[in-house]
């Protein structure tokens, strides 16, 4: 039995310790906002926060998450930064297909937590591992700047 704290709720899961955190979250905790993209930690669609830092859950073993606070896209609604990012994403109509957006938003909120007024270079560095097949990178950057304005208002 493995105990996980996901979005401030405790879950006891009967899973193998080497199972990727992504599958524990999607298949056992039943939170499907975190997406499977590549399975090799390259695309960012599976990004979640572990103790506040973004990690690629497709390659992060569930055993490594025990005793840590895991936040998924579903858990950002109660967070000032998450709310600002969501508002900016909607205002600027960032998503096109939307598949990568949960990972993009998780990376953006982690960036804004550490750098409330990021530069373009900060954004590019923080978001570089999050791929968007639709190419909405300029809208993503604009939305992060807009979210920073909301947070710092």
TrEMBL record:
Domain 2Fe-2S ferredoxin-type, residue spans: 1-76
- Which terms are listed as keywords in the entry? 2Fe-2S, Iron, Iron-sulfur, Metal-binding, Oxidoreductase
Q: Which GO terms describe its molecular function?
A: 2 iron, 2 sulfur cluster binding; metal ion binding; oxidoreductase activity
- SUPFAM superfamilies to which the protein is assigned, alphabetical: 2Fe-2S ferredoxin-like (SSF54292), CO dehydrogenase ISP C-domain like (SSF47741)
Protein name, per record = Isoquinoline 1-oxidoreductase alpha subunit
Which CDD domains is this protein grouped with? fer2
Q: What is the protein's species of origin?
A: Hydrotalea sandarakina
Gene3D superfamilies reported in the protein's UniProt record = 3.10.20.30, [2Fe-2S]-binding domain
């Amino acid at each position: 039995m493995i105990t996980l704290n996901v979005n401030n709720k405790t879950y006891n899961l009967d899973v193998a310790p080497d199972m990727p955190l992504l599958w524990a979250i999607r298949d056992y905790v039943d939170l499907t906002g975190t997406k499977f993209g590549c399975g090799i930690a390259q695309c960012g669609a599976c990004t979640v926060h572990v103790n506040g830092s973004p990690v690629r859950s497709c390659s992060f073993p569930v055993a490594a998450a025990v005793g840590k606070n895991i936040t998924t896209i579903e858990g950002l609604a109660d967070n000032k930064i998450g709310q600002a990012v969501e508002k900016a994403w909607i205002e600027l109509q960032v998503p096109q297909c939307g598949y990568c957006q949960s990972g993009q938003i998780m990376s953006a909120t982690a960036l804004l937590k550490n750098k409330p007024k990021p530069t373009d270079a900060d954004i590019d560095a923080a978001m570089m591992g999050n791929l968007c097949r639709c190419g909405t990178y300029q809208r993503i950057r604009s939305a992060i700047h807009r979210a920073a304005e909301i947070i710092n208002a």
